Amino acid sequence: MVRLRLKRHGRKQRMTYRIVAIDAKSRREGKVTREVGFFNPRREETQLDILAIAALCESGAKLTKTVRDILGRAKLPQRIRTES
């Protein structure tokens, strides 16, 4: 099963996150299937590939709670956020 979740990047106290599609059994820093977005919590910047996220959700990918919250703040359609 594929999950959309955050992958940590950057150094201590300066982290950023990438939103990635990854196998659910893999660890956080494991091999990524596809990168679909970027999130910077310090500046509240979010960059999303909406078409890729929608395609992954339609094919059965699950969202973690944190990613679901980020997509909600980005005002993505509710159907994408609830398909998991």
Folded structure, characterized:
With 84 residues, the chain is α+β, with helices and mostly antiparallel strands. Helices cover 27% and strands 35% of the residues. Strands 4-3-2-1-5 form a 5-stranded mixed β-sheet. The mean pLDDT is 87. It is found in: Plastid, Chloroplast. It comes from Pteris multifida. One of its GO terms (cellular component) is small ribosomal subunit.
Features:
about 80 residues; alpha+beta; five-stranded mixed β-sheet; 3 helices; about 35% strand; globular; Ribosomal_bS16
Write a short abstract of this structure.
With 84 residues, this protein is of the alpha+beta class. The protein contains three helices and five strands, in the order E-E-E-E-H-E-H-H.
